[in-house]
């Protein structure tokens, strides 16, 4: 957990919990997002928790002009460069059905923006012989379900991108961890109906830290979601298409 960690979408609940975990291990941290005032407060908190340094940096998945300056900032950091991607948005499928124009934002926030940024910073990581990428996908990407298939499709695309990135970065001595959370208690899920077995962000962050330290490739968090999604993926399509899950 050493080196510098770039946390994209750093003001989300999961990202904050993970940033605190790496700060407590003495890492340098670049907290990146849109709300600079909130990010600066977070950076100060991380230093108080043990980070060797912390800085707030602008990043907006929907504004590609923010990518290169963040890469330039990372170039000034010493040693290993690591990236944790917590960026995402999740309007309800009903909202998307009402306004299909929302699909563009969902795709950009959950896949296109993060993938584009990772492609830009990858040469720096390879030049420094590796580093770690943590990419937060979702169990929603394992199978298209009527309640959130647009969001699920974007997360599935990101998971596939991370799989290829893992192959490439491993050749430079780095690693990619794909994280598939189930229901997590965050601002993005507060209005979602029908959630069960909701996990606190700290639990997810703890699972990610363990996965990074152990060099895991793909994790479900909490772990019981692996069983749940294995069952869901095994349901025959002729039956699955009649279900409201």
Describe the model.
- With 245 residues, the chain is an alpha/beta fold.
- The protein has one domain (4-240): NAD(P)-binding Rossmann-like Domain (Rossmann fold, 3-Layer(aba) Sandwich).
- 47% of the residues lie in helices and 16% in strands.
- The protein contains nine helices and seven strands.
- It has helices spanning 13-23, 36-48, 67-75, 93-98, 102-127, 149-170, 201-214, 224-234, 237-240; strands at 4-8, 28-33, 53-58, 81-85, 132-136, 175-181, 218-221.
- Strands 3-2-1-4-5-6-7 form a seven-stranded parallel sheet, with helices on both faces.
- Strand 6, helix 7 (201-214) and strand 7 (218-221) form a beta-alpha-beta unit.
Order of helices and strands: EHEHEHEHHEHEHEHH
The percentage helix is: 40-55%
Find the CATH topology: Rossmann fold
| CATH-level-2 architecture | 3-Layer(aba) Sandwich
Overall SS class? alpha/beta
CATH class: Alpha Beta
> Unreliable segments (pLDDT under 50, ≥5 consecutive)?
none
Tally of DSSP β-strands:
7
Strand percentage lies at 15-25%
Mean pLDDT: 93
Task: Walk across the major sheet and give the strand order.
Answer: 3-2-1-4-5-6-7
Return Rg in Å.
17 Å
In whole angstroms, the N-to-C terminal distance is 37 Å
Shape: globular
Q: Give the name of the CATH superfamily.
A: NAD(P)-binding Rossmann-like Domain
Number of helices: 9
- Biggest sheet details: 7 strands, parallel
| Integer count of domains | 1
Set out the fold topology.
Elements: E1 4-8, H1 13-23, E2 28-33, H2 36-48, E3 53-58, H3 67-75, E4 81-85, H4 93-98, H5 102-127, E5 132-136, H6 149-170, E6 175-181, H7 201-214, E7 218-221, H8 224-234, H9 237-240
Parallel strand pairs: 1-2, 1-4, 2-3, 4-5, 5-6, 6-7
């Amino acid at each position: 957990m050493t080196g510098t960690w770039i946390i994209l979408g750093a003001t989300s609940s999961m990202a904050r919990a993970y940033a605190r975990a790496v700060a407590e291990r003495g890492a340098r941290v670049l907290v990146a997002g849109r709300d600079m005032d909130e990010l600066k407060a977070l950076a100060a908190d991380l230093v108080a928790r043990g980070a060797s340094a912390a800085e707030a940096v602008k990043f907006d998945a929907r504004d590609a002009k923010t990518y290169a300056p963040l890469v330039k900032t990372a170039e000034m950091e010493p040693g290993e460069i690591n990236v944790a991607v917590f960026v995402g948005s999740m309007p309800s499928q009903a909202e998307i059905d009402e306004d299909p124009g929302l699909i563009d934002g969902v795709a950009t926030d959950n896949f296109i923006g993060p993938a584009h940024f990772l492609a830009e910073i990858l040469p720096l990581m390879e030049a420094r012989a590796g580093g770690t990428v943590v990419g937060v996908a979702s169990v929603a990407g394992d199978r298209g379900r009527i309640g959130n298939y647009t969001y699920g499709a974007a997360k599935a695309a990101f998971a596939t991108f991370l799989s290829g990135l893992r192959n490439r970065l491993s050749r430079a001595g780095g690693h990619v961890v794909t994280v598939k959370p189930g229901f997590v208690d965050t601002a993005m899920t507060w209005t979602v109906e029908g959630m069960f077995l909701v996990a606190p962000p700290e639990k997810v962050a703890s699972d990610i830290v363990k996965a990074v330290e152990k060099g895991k490739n793909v994790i479900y968090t909490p772990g019981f979601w692996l069983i749940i999604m294995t069952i869901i993926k095994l349901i025959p399509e002729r039956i699955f298409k009649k279900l409201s899950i």
